[in-house]
Amino acid sequence: MAIAGRVAIVPKGNWNNETIYKKLDAVSYAYNLYIAKKESINIEPTDTEYWMLALENVSAELIENLQNEVSNIKDGTIKVGDADTLDGLDSKDFRPSKCKELSSGTSILDYVLDDNNIPNLSNLAFRIFNSSTSPTSGDNDYIYDVYKLTNSFIRIVAYDMLTNNIYVIKRNDTWSSWRNIFNANLIDGLPLTDLFRRYDLNQINIDNTTGCWSTDVSVNDGSKGTLPPDVAWCSVRQYVSQGEHFFAQIGQDFNHAKLFYRNRYLPTGTWSEWKFVGDGGNAKTLNGLGSELFFRKYQHPTGTSANKAVQTGIHTCVGWTGIPSEAASTDTQGTIITINYNELGGTIGTSNLWLKQQFISPHGSGTWTRYVYTTVADAWRKDANETVINRLAHTNFFNYVQNTNLNTLLTTGCYQLGSSSYAKLSLNFPLEGVGGFLKVECQGNVRTQTYYAFAGKSNFVRVFYRHYFKNAETGEVYWSDWDEKIGVDNVSNPNLLDNPDFKINQRGLSVYTASAQYTVDRWLHNTVDGFRVYPQTDGGINLNATLVPDGTAKATLLQYIENYTKLLGKTVTISCKLKDLSTVYTKEVVIPTSAGSTKALNISYSQNNLDIFLYYNGSNRLSFNIRINVVDLYKTIIFEWVKLELGSCPTPFVPPNPALELLKCQRYYETNGTPICGITFYGNAFQGSQFRVQKRLIPTINVTANIVGEEANLPISEIGYPSDKGFTFVLSGRDLPTSCPIYYYYIADAEIY
After folding, report:
1. Count of other CB atoms within 10 angstroms of residue 707
2. Would you say 488 and 505 are in contact if contact means Cβ atoms under 8 Å apart?
3. How many CB atoms lie within 10 A of CB 412?
4. Of all helices (H) and strands (E), which one includes residue 639?
5. How far apart are CA 171 and CA 155, in angstroms?
6. Which residue of 25, 236, 484, 683 is 20 to 30 Å from 701, comparing CA positions?
7. Do 607 and 575 belong together in one domain?
8. Spatial distance between the Cα atoms of 466 and 478, rounded to a whole number of angstroms
9. In the predicted model, what is the mean pLDDT of the chain?
10. CA-CA distance, 253 to 255, in Å (whole number)?
11. Which domain holds residue 711?
12. How far apart are CA 191 and CA 305, in angstroms?
């Protein structure tokens, strides 16, 4: 730092020609006061280069007094005055040496937020006895050191004058909690037990020290625990599971850059042997994958049978046995690629195996393939010449057969077939008048024919199987009958309707007459008065409109379809069967995407006329409707079943499992059916019930109850806490004795209205 030099006036009395005067020296000369501008000797004060006239025509006494005043100011015996600022700063801009004492009980947190108390960019200290927001409760006495940037950013350090503790709190828009920083229980929010501790050299015994830690060990005499073998200097890290159930240690050999591992169970358990990680140990996984997921390579001893190469991978041998004869005639070397379906071991021909083998000759003579299933192995079959295959047209892969007796078609391959009216009987086709293609496969003396007939709808294929057996001794040939495996008669799509055969009738009535009310489960009476619905004892439903006025009135039974949104715009098929008729009525339709109906199926039966159609209201309802168009005659129709399925092809109706169908219906409506014995908890409340099936929403619940031995029903005032899973209690309008046995029934209605 630079030295400023002389900065104050120095009185020197009367001027003398022998005195050396320096800058700011003050002298009297000829009743005038002069101040030196620079150093001089024997230069009179009248010389303006060296001197400055300060006062003119003053007495010697006044000059002496002025010189004395300057000396007193210099010595600090005279008060100069009170300046407004010091270097541009007000006194409030300086931290006072004494902290301010606030009233007992004052909230330090509220006090610092007041800008009148503490302005922004301040650092002030306060003493408060028993502050309402102090770090500790009870009697307390703190000095608070406040650092305030703005009201959003504040830090306070609290010095406990009664104990040896220091606390800190900060505000980032909101206050944090006080934290003891002098004797912390947490480090960065974590207890000491959660920290990974570092011990000094040979400080602990690595066999019996719990917790997670790291240490260096150089003593290999057992006094500090068991080190890895042949290690002089070692770093050991220990990891422990929560609850100290499982321990693992990793040891790093400094001298040989080796890594070791061992583990144990419980602190009282025994450590496993140290294992060198890099010694070729047999890991369970590699990069999370088991060995079965890798394509492995096996080198077999000379003379190994190909029947032994059963594991998935590449197998090599210089002297294979059991390989294709053509390849063996050239050289018994070669590679076998095996794909094993379930990775079962064993030997081909004796073990239950499912695999494929491909033999590759090193002499470029081709490749051979065989398949193994159970204990049966195909013969080796030479693979096709790829260059030839690539030159063939697509049609060359199929042989076109017209008017060929299929009993004579024994060569492996695929054949395009043309059929005629006489082909079924005369040429042993499974169908007449339907073309398709035939696949012929060979396995020893057995030939299998599979016939794919494109019959009916294009999205259905009927597959027929039959087998050819040849007696090896007599040469006699036998063909089995055609067996239809897949077809419209034995495949059924799911039914999108609930209770499609009308057998579930939880409400239990024999006739339903009320309009806008449900009848058998999931089917809503939605029409004019006079329309009656009769459930049939053996299933089915009788729709009776005999009491409905003649003319234009219509009688309707409908079902609302839940979760219908993904069905809008889809092609579906409607089917139904009436009682005593063998005919199944069916119609393909597209579900509407805007408000309006799709007239699907119109049936005229015994002078009755009815429509089955889908109706979408454009917002929240899709319904399946059965409507009798009322005329002057019969007006009675009995349905056995109805079906709604995805796709354009009707498939057979499969009667639903009654137990499963009941559960589906109970999603919408449930009654307990049999009395349940409840126990009074207190006063007028008794227990509720859990539904058998979770409802689609919180249902409307109705409860009927009576005390055992009484015929009159209890007055029910409230059902408590209903949900889609049940209700917890029922309040009765009558006080009940403790442990009073009660029978009660409930009905839970979550139907779509």
Report:
1. 18
2. no
3. 12
4. strand 636-646
5. 6
6. 683
7. yes
8. 10
9. 84
10. 6
11. 669-749
12. 65
